[in-house]
Design a protein that fits this description.
- The protein is an alpha/beta fold.
- The strands form 5 sheets. It has an 11-stranded mixed β-sheet, with helices on both faces. A two-stranded antiparallel sheet has the order 1-2.
- Strand 6, helix 9 and strand 7 form a beta-alpha-beta unit.
- The chain starts with a strand and ends in an 11-residue tail after the last strand.
- Its main location: cytoplasm.
- It holds the Pfam family Abhydrolase_1.
């Protein structure tokens, strides 16, 4: 684009526009050809509804039509709401004030532009959409006779459709996009189209939305930078030991078991919000498992392999490194589920090694798994297992898209508007870089986890699952546990995580943090943000527990440190390489640097 001399208004250079359109056409043709070729090469018949959405909506429609009176009532309500909206809009056009018929939620950032309020036309478009959305949600919620899983699936995908059809997602009905289009003479749309093509090229025909500036971050240089060494490794993990920053340390080492759905450095993004650095600064000898990003060669690795080659191998290695036989273990999300299974396994075998366990947002009872349960039924699991068996692993992008759909407006549509309609580059954000640094899941492990735990909920049953031939019984766990859950967690709902307080055979301190799955955990004291709730009484019902809590302002990290330090004594600080383990390489190690995309 060229600028007209002496003016701020941009004019279109025909030669530049022609060249840009030719490049776009050439790139588009190549992307489509590659995509079609790959689709044609996929073995077996193509399933165009692997999530079995069609059957769910057909069942919902049949139930809905069996009671037409409710549908008529809903339609009349919608018609009356629209009449009120038309009347109010007419009053506004004549200069009168009128209260809105429908308002967005205060946290809904789609309608933050002032034109949604000030301009009568855009206000009408906004309220019309909100009324239609309310109508659709009301209709599907009001259908009786559906089983709970089908009802949840219909509600979830109705919300996906409603979110996709928001007027903010389209050029002609988004005032901010229209304004940018006029001011730049359409340059925003041309830049947005190039952004779209870049994302399609990176996804090899599948849309891989760019959420941050990937070139702004490099693991080991400006994220995951707490100094340490890799002191042990096997096929599934590298074990990092971090350099001490205090003269003395707690005698019991700290072992962190992160989830292998994502990478460990969510706990070490930047020095100011790194749980790992903070724990080191409090005098803990910190070790963390850095899981490998598996490929087809590790397809047969199952949950038991992750236990043996993960925490059990790490405990033995830590004894060699420090001379201490027991650790304080910390498990996060899926890593927490593995930690609980390891505790039960060690209890059954009479093995020492874990003096205390801390669990971050950890599910053990999957009877109410939240919206993730929508993706767990026989039809979907069969389809997923067939797909996973082709390569021996679940592609990390598939898992990432599932989690993004749970917050589609924030993690999908906001970037569609920013990147493709406004033509802007996404803002550099370390958390979103981590979120996009997806990891694969071995076929055997993934199938076991989804079927035995999510679908059948066997972990809550004594002997319901076996690991290495050992019955897993949570009631045999006597190890003290500190449970940290998050009140707004949409991945591990806190009322579901609470079940372990009743199923474990040992003492459990349950703490509830404000915010969600990530922010509720990564909440350093220096930020003085959020709060948490505690209640020392052991009660069966989570709501009863919450009603009796004490609210504490700020981070829960100091509370945990005081709990984890009980019964310990100071010893001279330990430096990686001082013990019987030789240094393999500098941290953060090779495993965490391998990108799946």
């Amino acid at each position: 684009m060229a600028e007209e001399k002496g003016a701020d208004v941009k004019v279109i250079d025909p030669a530049e526009l022609s060249q840009a359109m030719a490049n776009i056409a050439e790139r588009s043709q190549r992307i489509v050809a590659d995509f079609v070729a790959r689709q044609a090469a996929e073995p077996g018949p193509q399933n165009f509804d692997p999530l079995n959405i069609g059957n769910a909506f057909m069942e919902m429609t049949a139930k809905m039509m069996s009671d037409p009176a409710k549908l008529v009532e809903a339609n009349l309500t919608l018609w009356n709401d629209y009449l009120s909206l038309w009347q109010n809009t007419a009053r506004r056009l004549m200069g009168e004030h009128s209260e809105p018929v429908a308002k967005p939620e205060p946290a809904d950032r789609r309608f933050k532009d002032e034109m949604w309020e000030e301009n009568e036309v855009f206000d009408f478009i906004k309220q019309s959409y909100l009324l239609s959305a309310r109508y659709m949600h009301g209709v599907v919620h009001g259908v009786e006779g559906l089983d709970e899983h089908t009802a949840q699936k219909v509600d979830f995908y109705t919300r996906q459709f409603v979110d996709a059809m928001a007027p903010s997602n389209f050029v002609l009905t988004n005032p901010e996009v229209l304004r940018a289009t006029v001011e730049s003479r359409g340059e925003n749309l041309l830049k947005g189209l190039n952004n779209l093509l870049d994302d399609l090229e990176r996804g090899k025909g599948n849309l891989a939305i760019k959420m941050t500036d990937y070139d702004a971050f490099k693991v080991g240089e400006n994220i995951a930078v707490t100094p340490g060494k890799v002191v042990y490794q096997n096929d599934l993990m590298q074990l990092l030991q971090f350099n001490p920053t205090t003269e003395t340390v707690v005698d019991r080492p700290l072992l962190i078991v992160p989830p292998w759905i994502n990478k460990y450095y969510i706990l070490d993004l930047r020095p100011k919000n790194s749980f790992i650095k903070w724990a080191v600064d409090q005098g803990h000898t910190v070790f963390v498992i850095s899981w490998v990003n598996p490929d087809e060669h590790l397809a047969a690795k199952d949950f038991g392999d992750y236990m043996h080659e993960g925490p059990l191998a790490a405990i033995k290695a830590i004894e060699q490194a420090t001379g201490h036989k027991e650790v304080n273990a910390v498990g996060y999300c899926l890593g927490g589920t593995l930690t609980v299974c390891t505790l039960a396994y060690m209890a059954a075998k009479g093995l020492p090694g874990i003096a205390s366990a801390t669990l971050f947002t950890t599910m053990t009872d999957f009877s109410e798994p939240g919206e993730l349960g929508i993706f767990i039924d026989e039809e979907q699991l069969v389809s997923l297992e067939a797909k996973v068996s082709e390569h021996g692993y679940l592609d990390g992008r598939d898992m990432a898209m599932t989690f993004n759909m749970l917050r589609a407006n924030d993690l999908i549509w906001s970037f569609v508007v920013n990147n493709y309609l406004l033509g802007k580059d996404p803002f550099p954000f370390d958390l979103l870089y981590w979120n996009s640094d997806s990891t694969r899941m071995p076929a055997a492990m993934h199938s076991f986890y989804l079927r035995k735990m999510y679908q059948q909920n066997l972990l809550t049953q004594p002997g319901g699952i076996q690991l290495d031939g050992v019955d897993i019984d949570l009631g045999k766990i006597k190890t003290p546990i500190y449970m940290l859950s998050a009140r707004e967690d949409h991945i591990a709902p806190w009322k579901s995580t609470y079940a372990l307080t009743q199923n474990s055979g040992g003492p459990v301190k349950f703490v509830l943090a404000a915010s969600g799955h990530i922010a509720g955990v990564v909440n350093p004291p220096a930020a003085n943000k959020y709060c948490y709730w505690t209640n020392n009484k052991k009660v069966k019902n989570p709501d009863t527990w919450l009603n009796g809590t004490t609210q504490v302002e700020g981070s829960w990290w100091p509370d945990w440190h005081a709990w984890a330090s009980k019964g310990t004594k100071p010893v001279p600080a330990r430096t990686p390489g001082d013990g019987k383990l030789a240094i393999v390489e500098d941290g953060p190690g090779a495993y965490v640097k391998e990108r799946a995309v």
